[in-house]
Amino acid sequence: MQKKFRHIMPRESQYCLDNMARGDSWRMFRIMAEFVEGFDTLSGIKRPSVTIYGSARTPENHPDYQVARELARRLAEHGYGIITGGGPGIMEAANRGAMDADGLSIGLNIDLPHEQEGNAYVNLPMDFRYFFVRKVMFMKYSMAFICMPGGFGSMDELFESLTLIQTRKIKPFPIVLVGSSFWSGLVDWIRDQLHGTGKIEEEDQQLFTVMDDIEEIVRYIRHTVVF
Quick check: is 4 in a domain? Predict the structure, then answer.
């Protein structure tokens, strides 16, 4: 039992979300500053942009890395800006592909204590302290999401976008899950457990599409994100 919960801090050392005595009122100014900087910087984007996200742990020699790089290159050749989380792995691959095509390569990096450093293939970099501010920027300035295989962070971004579309907080936009072998278990679970038990509607299963072929994905994006 002790080993299982070794990552949990003692209660007295945890940060309490409702404790306003730890500088939260001043923290609001930092949050507002991140929003202002993000809006000011990214509002200058003059072309439709596509966000590509996935695991930060994917190595350069992995097939997923090569798919993300080639997909981003092809989209950049057609004039789309490429947005990523600015870190290593799939994010690096997508930014690298955009740079291969001399395209717009945007990296919205997040400050993390252990994992992420910005990659070298970005020509419009930004750094964020807060995940929720960063996710607003992804949603506001992306015309489509391409989801490569990833971990908790990728799932968080995927399900937040699905939730916002389902609840009509944002207009529908293309969400492509790349790699049927990776996503099939999740898709089956959504069908059987969420829809099958009445937790979501039939049409909610149509909010995303699963694809494997790079050419097919590029055609789909070009058909749905027109400029």
Answer: no
